[in-house]
Write a structure and sequence with these properties.
four-stranded mixed β-sheet; three-stranded mixed β-sheet; 14% strand; globular
Length: 322
């Protein structure tokens, strides 16, 4: 049986409970698995004679590691290629189609929940560094120069194995003032890393929504915690795209919310569509009606942006903070 045949005859709602049971740490990722499943259903399988072998892996059993089911020739390959592979299950592996699909879905999304992405919602390609990222790099270079004994104008962090050994020796024999200096630098790096993430979040919103007022987003710098998540409709039908988002949130997010979700006191909703298929007021009204009880206290801040690559689909960026 080819992988595309397995997925076509196994609905996602039958696969989801097995993802939760087998990979409990993936529970919060269920909506992204749903998106990946629909992408796969709408991807044409490649013609190939390759096989995807499912077997027990007992490599480190003698060291106390539990045996686990391994899906071979899957992770990192093109999705269309995987869809065309014959799924071959070892004789001692007893799985239902739903359990088999759950294992394969985990493996096929190992590097991201969409093809050609290194992480869901995270692949941006090249982009200029913001001012805080530049400070992080400068501080890291300073840390390196402290022990590599490079000149201030030497921007290279490369070193030979012998040089790294010498650096490690110098670090191991630091006196108290040097340890205190290193601690201060580490604290500054953590501070600027956080500020760089907030700035990147603000830049993401403003780049897709040029009319957004940056001053109204400055509150994000004063928050203690920020949660960011992207959702993307995979309805392949402009009339059903909002139904798709509502289903993601009500069926695959809300029942599995963690306890911390109630601790956020401010929410930002950012809808992104193609200029050719803008978000209709009726669509937002439909979303708001279903989403009202899902919000983290009070009204949510609303932003609308455009991205011509989205076609008929809609993206929703949810930022919760406190």
């Amino acid at each position: 049986m080819k992988l595309h045949e397995l997925l076509e005859r196994t609905p996602f709602d039958a696969i989801a409970p097995h993802i939760v049971r087998i990979f409990p740490e993936q529970t919060s990722q269920l909506p992204h698995y749903k998106e990946a499943y629909d992408i796969l259903l709408h991807t044409s399988p490649a013609q190939t004679e390759e096989q995807m072998c499912v077997r027990w892996c007992r490599v480190n059993e003698e060291y106390g590691e539990e045996p686990y089911i391994s899906v071979g020739n899957c992770e990192g390959d093109f999705w269309e290629s995987n869809l065309g592979k014959e799924v071959v299950v070892a004789e001692d592996v007893k799985l239902s189609n739903e359990e088999l699909a759950a294992h394969i879905m985990w493996s096929i999304t190992f590097y991201g929940f969409a093809p050609n992405r290194c992480s869901y919602g995270g692949y941006e390609g090249y982009r200029p560094l913001n001012c805080y990222e530049e400070k992080v790099i400068d501080l890291q270079m300073r840390e390196f120069r402290n022990y590599a004994r490079r000149k201030p104008d030497d921007a290279s962090c490369t070193a030979t194995i012998e040089e790294w050994r010498e650096i490690e020796k110098r670090i191991a024999h630091r006196n108290r003032p040097k340890r205190m200096r290193d601690h201060r630098q580490q604290q500054l790096i953590k501070k600027y890393e956080r500020l760089s993430k907030v700035q990147r979040l603000i830049d993401t919103i403003c780049s897709a929504s040029p009319e957004a007022d940056k001053s109204k987003l400055q509150y994000l710098f004063d928050t203690n915690f920020i949660s960011e998540v992207w959702h993307h409709s995979r309805a392949y039908n402009v009339e059903r795209r909002m139904d798709y988002l509502v289903e993601l949130l009500t069926k695959y997010v809300e029942p599995y919310q963690d306890a911390d979700s109630e601790q956020y006191d401010r929410m930002l909703l950012f809808f992104i569509t193609s200029p050719d298929y803008p978000l209709l007021m009726a669509e937002y009204a439909q979303f708001a009606e279903n989403f009202a009880h899902f919000q983290a206290g009070g009204e949510a801040d609303l932003y609308f942006g455009t991205d011509s690559s989205l076609g008929q689909e809609v993206q929703l960026f949810i930022v919760k903070s406190r």
